[in-house]
Specification:
178 residues; mainly beta; Porin; 8-stranded antiparallel β-barrel
Amino acid sequence: DSDLIQLGVKGGVNFASMTGDDIGDVNSRTSFHAGLLAEIPYSERFSLQGEVLYSGQGFEVENTLGKGEYNLDYIQIPILAKYYLVQGLSVQVGPQIGFLINEEAKYSGSLGSAETESDFANDFEFGVVGGLEYKLDSGIFLQGRYVYGISKLFDDSQVAGDPSVHNSVFQLGVGYMF
């Protein structure tokens, strides 16, 4: 029934990086996202969807000295407007808040290897989400999304120079609505 709230689970792969004038040349970090969602229909074509997700983000960098990885792990809460273009196919857009739960830097190369927890990134992030989803009659769905962090990743009290750096994540996922 299209009037009932639907609950679901989802997971998938993240291709995360950072954007901004002050970040330089970095490679994406491949990680994952997983979580729970609820879709609340308001009409045949329009729903609101709330989610609670774990999301692994960050970036990698590689040069002649070795390979470095900067990992940021979040609990993300997107609230999305979901509009069905045709049966099963919807476009989603909305805000997202994120709470940083882990931050670490890793290095391996000619200078040895190291792994350390760090405390440079802001504990809270505000972002926007946009994407497409196709839901089968069986309840299985496929998603593609882009997530952009509007708030700065670092503030000038943590990193010199007031850097303008933002999270940037492409997500491909699969899920199931009960």
